[in-house]
Amino acid sequence: MKFIKTVQEVADFTVSGDRKLFSATHEEVEAGLTTDIYFVKTREILEKLGRADTVVAAEIFARGAGVFAGVEEVKRLLAETGVEVWSLPEGEKFAPKEVVMRIFGPYGQFGIYETAVLGILASSSAWATRAREAKEAAGGKPAICFGARHVHPAVAPVMERAAVIGGADGASCILGAKIAGIEPMGTVPHALFLIVGDTVEAALGYDEHMPPSSPRSMLVDTFKDEVEESLRLCEAMGTRLESVRLDTPGERGGVTPGLVAELRAKLDLAGYSHVRIFVSGGLDPDRIRLLSEAGADAFGVGSYISGASPIDMTMDLKEVDGKPVAKRGRIPGLTPSKRLVRIL
């Protein structure tokens, strides 16, 4: 594997002026161009001292609790380094200070990737944790990740895959869902209804032109009262209508338990008990619980997942040439951790 090895190589590296996006490519991450410069300096010094191939054991622990994600990316990044990696499985909960990953091998082969590895695990675990919280709040009801629009497009697929690892029942981002091994979920935005000019007409157009596998779930807050629009849709589509979606903006008070309860009652009274209520818009676990109790059947969760603060991860060397070591304040030697499994 070829990666950047000297300070001079860093100095010689230039960024093309016609670069379309500022996000790193896969090749740039693998080349070590997203690392902190001090890891390049460390490797160069060790190389010149004849110590770059020193065999070490490195442990990664989390500063806080969460749901572990990002393992598969780390595995792929380190696959050609020749190191041995033990890890907590993706989707597992971890406690503060628990060792979540351990790496054995020549430091010069993987030290350059510390920044990338920690970043992958810190962000992915944070997104997975928020998704788990949303799913637990929803109980047995579906919770779909709608967070792609809140993050840079380069990391949106990573975020949505992590959400699925955490427990989300689906994701709207095409690439994120495909990487997670599922099909993307979602119907249409308010734009369709605004352009067509009528909720029922737009919904009938969807029903006519979208494949049977596409859910018949329609927004009902674009033009008129949500209950009125829902009943109009039910009359026009009958049993073909699977659900109505409430995404009432904050300017009108947002989606409230009262609105959900009223809609549920009037759908049932009109004979449309089969129509489910899907809610979205600024949801967090507390709101999910309240809306679920009021009668909501499914939830689209965006910024609560995508806006998660990374869960700090730290990498420590705990053995050098087989001898226990540690910085001051840490315990030398490997930390007991029976939950790790070998992935490389």
Notes on the structure:
The chain is of the alpha/beta class and 344 residues long. The protein folds into two domains: 7-125 and 309-342, nicotinate phosphoribosyltransferase (Alpha-Beta Barrel), CATH 3.20.140; 127-306, TIM Barrel, CATH 3.20.20. Helices cover 39% and strands 17% of the residues. The protein has 14 helices and 14 strands. It has helices spanning 7-12, 26-30, 37-48, 71-78, 107-110, 114-138, 156-166, 174-179, 190-196, 199-209, 226-237, 257-269, 285-294, 303-306; strands spanning 55-62, 66-67, 84-87, 93-94, 99-106, 143-145, 170-171, 217-219, 243-246, 276-280, 298-301, 313-320, 323-324, 341-342. The strands form three sheets. A six-stranded antiparallel β-sheet has the order 13-12-1-5-3-14. Helix 12 (257-269) links the parallel strand 9 and strand 10. The longest helix has 25 residues, at 114-138. The radius of gyration is 25 Å and the shape is elongated. It starts with 6 loop residues before the first helix and ends with a strand. The model has no long low-confidence stretch (mean pLDDT 97).
* CATH topology name of the largest domain: TIM Barrel
Count of the domains = 2
Helix and strand string, N-terminal first?
HHHEEHEEEHHEHEHHHEHEHEHEHEEE
Radius of gyration: 25 Å
Main sheet specs: 6 strands, antiparallel
Q: Please, how many helices?
A: 14
Task: Walk across the major sheet and give the strand order.
Answer: 13-12-1-5-3-14
State the separation between the terminal residues, measured CA to CA.
16 Å
What portion of residues belong to β-strands? 15-25%
Mean pLDDT: 97
| Low-confidence segments | none
The chain-level structural class is alpha/beta
The backbone outline, from C-alpha atoms, is elongated
Question: Helix proportion of residues, in percent?
Answer: 25-40%
CATH architecture of the largest domain: Alpha-Beta Barrel
| CATH homologous superfamily classification of the largest domain | Aldolase class I
Counting DSSP E segments of at least 2 residues, the number of strands comes to 14
- Per CATH, the class of the largest domain reads Alpha Beta
